[in-house]
Request: fold
Amino acid sequence: MAFRVIPLVDQRRDAPLPVPNDGEAAQKGVLQDRRGRPLTDLRISVTDRCNFRCSYCMPKEVFDKNHVYLPHSALLSFEEITRLARVFVDQGVRKIRLTGGEPLLRKNIEHLIEQLAALRTPDGASLDLTLTTNGSLLARKAQALKAAGLQRVTVSLDALDDTIFRRMNDMDFPVADVLDGIDAAREAGLGPIKVNMVVKRGTNEQEILPMARHFRERHGGDVVLRFIEYMDVGATNGWRMDEVMPSAEVVARIGAELPLRPLEATAPGETAQRWAYADGRGEIGVISSVTRAFCSQCSRLRLSTEGRVYLCLFASQGHDLKSLLRGGASDEDLASAIRGIWRARGDRYSELRALQPQDATDAPAARRVEMSYIGG
Ligand code: SAM
Ligand code: SF4
Ligand code: SF4
Reply:
């Protein structure tokens, strides 16, 4: 099966779209995009640096010693991030995820977490505050992250086998340290923990069952393992459709050994489809970004390390908020810019990809933003 990599600009922008802000949600003052999707979920990238070189994200050949990272002066300060986050919360955001690069590499990240944890919604509720990490520094930092107000973590882990894991992170980093990080996060109360495994056919598919068994036997329902389809993000990972293992195949492989039954989604816009082990010992999730697009439910906005807003993982261009911030804009100016950006949003890359003819040949990827720059 071949997929053509399609241009990032939504060329169907002129297609008829639902009229935004005309439904029940709008009557309640909810900000909606052109497809009626609310803005509820903010992902903040706090660094473009990482201590891993996962080939599907920051391949070593590209992110080598000559790669130029953002200078410190270009990064949003913690105060700038918190100010923007407050404005986003006033516009409807209820969940904030810190990401990167590797977010735990950002110096004093717990100070940012403290500031974000103090934010409140207009109703006075606290936010759902979480972080995605490769787990390499988690054993050292879990207690401090919890004390600062972080509620949960998601840990990325692609294999239990040490040789495969070292090869995939391409920095010879041992799997035992990440497993210690997961234990430390559990002990610190940063649960329920999600563990994300990107499945690449021919690279780590043999790890699907060992990972499923490990997390169910060791952690039962406290750790939820989620399998992610390898995505064509960025322009450097050399993505090929034949390296994508469809989630349906992952579920079938696990289900053949450990019977599964489907679960209902717990929240609107949930990207993972959930499956419970039939014997009641925990559950798994699958995120089928390639084979089952969930654009119609996508309520996420991404803020890059240098203060640009991206409306889609596959976007090639962002909207600069840093210039506004540093140019003396008021909170209302920022809110108005955010409303304008979100209302004009029509992105649905994965849906459009799925509409491509199956026999189309691969074309060169457009200059898409890298995952390590905007976070996952
Ligand atoms: N460094 C942190 C980590 O690895 O968890 C946070 C940033 S990383 C970009 C966020 C998530 O994106 C990770 O779970 C990673 O596995 C996922 N990811 C990166 N490239 C991907 C790709 N090509 N396809 C699917 N997931 C990808
Ligand atoms: Fe680093 Fe995360 Fe990308 Fe791996 S997936 S290279 S850990 S940013
Ligand atoms: Fe959201 Fe873009 Fe992914 Fe669709 S392709 S789910 S719009 S990030």
Summary: The chain is about 30% helix and 15% strand. Residues 294-295, 298, 312-314, 347-350 surround iron/sulfur cluster (ligand 3) (CB under 6 Å). The CA atoms of residues 3 and 50 lie 30 Å apart. The chain has one domain: 14-374.
